[in-house]
Amino acid sequence: MQNEKIPTRQLFGLLIVARLSFSISSILALHVPPHNQDQWVMVIVACLYIAISSMPILFLANRINKDTVKGFVTSIYGRPLSRLMGVLYLIYFIILTIDAIILQTELVTTSILPESSNYLITTLMLMVCIYMTSRGVIVILRSVDLLIPVIYSILFVLMVLGINNVDFSLFLPILSDSTINDINKGALILSTLYNDIIIIAMLVPELKNKNISTRVFFGSLITNMIILNIVIIITQGALGIEYARHSLFPFLIYVRLINLARIVERIAAVFVVMWLLTITFRINILLYLATKILRDIFNKGEDDKLCLFIVSTIVWIVSIGITVMRPVVGTRNDLNNYLAIIFVIYIIIIPLITCMIFLFRRKSISGAKNQK
Predict the structure, then answer these.
(1) CA dist., res. 159 & res. 161, Å (int)
(2) CB 215 within 8 A of CB 75
(3) Are 195 and 54 in contact (CB under 8 A)?
(4) Burial classification of residue 310, based on how many CB atoms lie within 10 Å of its CB (0-12 exposed, 13-18 middle, 19 or more buried)
(5) 353/276 Cα distance (integer angstroms)
(6) Beta strands in 187-313 (DSSP E)
(7) If we measure between CA atoms, which residue out of 349, 56, 44 comes closest to residue 187?
(8) Radius of gyration of the chain from its Cα atoms, rounded to whole angstroms
(9) Beta partners for residue 207, in sequence order
(10) What is the reported pLDDT for 31?
(11) Which of 110-114, 219-223, 248-252, 294-298 is predicted with the least confidence, judged by mean pLDDT?
């Protein structure tokens, strides 16, 4: 199974499921300018900024081709600096995993088990993710492939059942209360929270078709933004502009507004299960990639479990520290501000430097590969 390659369909499914977990959670797009009925316009503009900011990594992903990520980075930076790069991106994936674990803990402790211990919830969730990650990326992607029709069928049904609560007149007239500066500011902030391109780049060497990364990226980006805009429109239309903005989990409230007599609570429970599945898949792939980088640093194989244990322990300790010492619900905006800064460093600055070094050294890199 270690030599088995990833079909394009499974990678595409993973990207839209992993992003869905954020689209239906706190809906971060509601918390950036212009803070009115034109949020959906801002999301469309954000697509352009996301595409531009992702170009350096997309360029590098298309140059990996038959090489591994480790071999490609080593050919650019040399062995010592490539290890430093590995450590830097190991830290980045650990941070992303911690953020996803914290979001999952927020969901469980605020929506279904309010009296539960953050310590217990975080530990149980991470144990499930560690088990799935230990089975390898192929098992993770097959699980996504199996469950994605179920997840999106549930989402579609929930959207349709609550559509009668949506007041579409709230969105008219378009752009009456927004300025170009506000929309651009919101689009820039939102784009710093979209880091899925790094997942594509890390998995390129394991794809059956390594030349498909550009189409997978833009296809998943457009699909995700369409889903996000639908969620924004029906949530704002059902709850009102200000209530949706200030709610912790607005789409969950939208689901609870669905009036189907005695099965309302069961509908909310089905939604929460679907939500947990999406965020679990995101944690699985981030945990897998962090472990993979650590294995590459120490030249370990896929069967090594010690690296998974080390990464998981770090994630567990930091997540417990954050969720126990501080109320996560009140610090979500602070976390997003830190993630935006980290995004600029890891998705834009470092890849841009790598692109420049690659362009200056591409002849020597090609020559070295030909000699091998």
Answers:
(1) 6
(2) no
(3) no
(4) middle
(5) 37
(6) none
(7) 44
(8) 21
(9) 6
(10) 85
(11) 110-114
Q: Where are the beta strands (DSSP E) in the chain?
A: none
Please classify residue 3 by burial: count the beta carbons closer than 10 Å to its beta carbon, then call 0-12 exposed, 13-18 middle and 19+ buried: exposed
How far apart are alpha carbons 229 and 79 in whole angstroms?
44
Residues 6+ apart with CB under 8 A from 344: 192
Asked if the model's pLDDT at residue 207 lies above 80, the reply is yes
What are the start-end ranges of the H helices in 135-204?
137-161, 180-191, 197-203
Place of tokens 């050294």: 361
Instruction: Let me know: does 249 contact 26? Beta carbons within 8 Å.
Output: yes
Q: What sign for the dihedral angle of Cα 293, 294, 298, 300?
A: negative
Give the integer Cα–Cα distance in Å for 166 and 240.
Answer: 9
Read off the tokens for 258.
């669905």
Distance CA 186, CA 312 (A): 34
Distances (CA, A) of 280 to 10, 237, 329, 339, 371: 16, 29, 19, 20, 44
**Residue in this structure with the two tokens 């869905």, named with its chain if needed:** 20
For residue 135, give every residue at least 6 positions away whose Cβ sits within 8 Å of its Cβ, in sequence order, or none.
none
Q: Average of pLDDT values for 274-292?
A: 92
Helix, strand, coil: what percent of the chain each, to 5?
80, 0, 20
**Distance separating alpha carbons of residues 308 and 345, to the nearest angstrom:** 25
Report how far residue 92's alpha carbon sits from residue 342's, in angstroms, rounded to the nearest whole number: 8
Question: For the segment 65-113, what is each residue's pLDDT rounded down to a tens digit?
Answer: 667 788 889 888 988 899 999 999 999 999 999 988 988 887 777 777 7
Which residue in the block uniquely carries the two structure tokens 């450590």?
87
User: pTM (2 decimals)?
Assistant: 0.92
Residue closest to 274 by CA, chosen among 158, 129, 100: 158
Residue 6 is given by DSSP the state B
Looking at beta carbons, which pairs linking 355-363 to residues 24 or more positions away fall under 8 Å? 355/56, 355/59, 355/60, 357/76, 357/77, 358/60, 358/63, 358/76, 361/76
Neighbouring-strand partners of residue 6:
207
Residues 157, 214: Cα–Cα separation, whole Å: 31
CA–CA dist 186, 350 (Å, integer): 24
In whole angstroms, what is the distance from residue 257 CA to residue 238 CA?
A: 8
Q: What DSSP line would sit under 161-178, residue for residue?
A: HTGGG--GGGG-STTSS-
